[in-house]
Amino acid sequence: MAQGLLPGTSMRIEVSSRDDVETYATRIEDVDAEKIAILVPMKGLRPRPLPAGTLVRSAYIFRQKRWRFVTEVIGHSPDGALEYLRLPAHIDCHERRRNYRLQVAIQPTRIYRLVVPAEGEPVSEQAFDGTIVDLSEGGCCIATKAFALPGERLGIEATLPEAGHIAVRARIVSVREPERGYRTHRLHCEFLEMPRAQRDLIARYLMRRQLEMRRRGQL
Fold first, then answer.
1. Which one of 31, 95, 165, 192 is most buried, counting C-beta atoms within 10 A?
2. What range defines the domain where residue 202 resides?
3. Quick check: pTM over 0.90?
């Protein structure tokens, strides 16, 4: 089976609820042309069957590389011991990057620099315009005409469709200068001290977005 989807392979799955992202360990029991059969996830030593239609993000190790895909629950075995996941059309390798980044086009509510003044003075904010062009649980890339330098701290507020509102702090890791004939800088940022609830919200948005794109044949 391509990309190591083999019976006996251990797999971690993440499931988004309304308020959180739950993580379970499971195992692949069988694979055919349409579905993957896994052991029903356990929580507190009790089975935690997932309703059909539940979005699932799966991760496993194959040939010392990390592989991920997004799919959905399509049913259960007659005895209730197995969960059936739709066989994904595409599986991503995440050998080099800790967090998968998805291309997006999100107009933030606010982007602003956090300017630290002289001792004793309050932190000030300098707003500028930009667009989030890729997003992960660990960071994002912002396209902007504003000048910025690596190491600067930003505040970012944005609404993720069908997920909710995020308000995070970030550090600019690197800046890609505009290509010839263009004026747009790319600010590659990592999130700082992000609350779990905000990270879960981003994870929920990315899961839904990936599944939607794969249904349309865009991934």
1. 31
2. 102-215
3. no
